[in-house]
Amino acid sequence: MTAAVLEVENLRMEFRAPRNAGGRRVQAVRDVSLEVQEGEILGLVGETGSGKTTVGKCVVRLLRPTAGSIRFMGEDITAMPSSQLRPLRSRIQMVFQDPYSSLDPRMTVSQIVAEPLRAHGTHSRREAAGLVRRTVERVGLSQQVLDRYPNELSGGQRQRVGLARALVLEPRLLIADEPVSALDVSVRAGILNLLVDLQRTMGFSCLFITHDLSVAEFLCDRVAVMYLGEIVEVGTRDEVFGAARHPYTRSLLGAAPLADPVEQRSRQRAILPGEPPSAIDPPPGCSLNPRCPLADRRCTEEAPGPTQVSEGGHVVRCHRVQEQLDLEVARS
Fold first, then answer.
1. pTM (predicted TM-score)
2. What is the pLDDT of residues 125-151, one digit of tens each?
3. Under 8 Å CB-to-CB from 320, ≥6 apart: which residues?
4. In what order do the strands lie in the sheet with 92-95?
5. Per-residue pLDDT at 42 exceeds 80
6. Engineering a disulfide at 21: which of 17, 154, 171, 330 sits with its beta carbon 3.0 to 4.6 angstroms away?
7. CB environment 280-307: b (16+ within 10 A), e (fewer)
């Protein structure tokens, strides 16, 4: 295992709910721990509202977490003041979900991509202009777009501009927050293949946030599954997609459509009843217990700890999985 570029430990993020909701605290992220290794792409998957984007914003310190720690390249940035955090921002960059609202409509493409260089003062004007041109070409855009404004570009072109802006400083860590979810299906493949090529040539690490399991399976080396602000399973791509152990992960995989209609009709799916509980008042014990068909009394009273399923780092938070492993050990 290579050195960790990003280490998140027991991250917690709470927000004040509106007055009409009683002014209580919304527990958006609850005790999340994860690592992104040197040169890997870690996928963070889960349904809408599970806390994925909040984790990403905490990592780049757009949000200051309520509790926990965030270490980047071995340095704790959790409570780092802005004056010390500013130099580090050149090494941690983010690509946002919506390419239509994340670009300044009053700036040209060249100005947008050059903005990080001006903000950090790392290059002269001539050097910056050359680097902007090379970066724009690297993300698959022609020099003709440099003098255009975002409203003159397609959605795919805008997302490539956002990617160029994030990569122009050659960061060590890229946070990609649903970068293809707002794009047409025909454009997504091009952006994903581009991201793979850039990651291989530039060597940056990536935390890729998505709700699309097919995208995570195609792109990511390891995958972490979130439910109601918690990570319930993490493992390699093959472990999560080929040997999932947590009931929620299995339900997610069963809900994803298959390309083969015959296989789609014949497969058995583990469908969870009901809706996710409110983050204002999460259930005691395991967060999935109100919906889980395997839940027992212990699940309603005691939150499960991490259970290591394999030596490769496949970890699941589920009492029943722990019981099954204990039984297997006893039989052997």
1. 0.91
2. 889 999 999 999 999 999 999 999 999
3. 247, 294, 296, 299
4. 92-95, 173-177, 205-210, 41-45, 222-227, 230-236, 315-316, 307-308
5. yes
6. 17
7. eebbebbbbbbbbeebeeebeeebbeeb
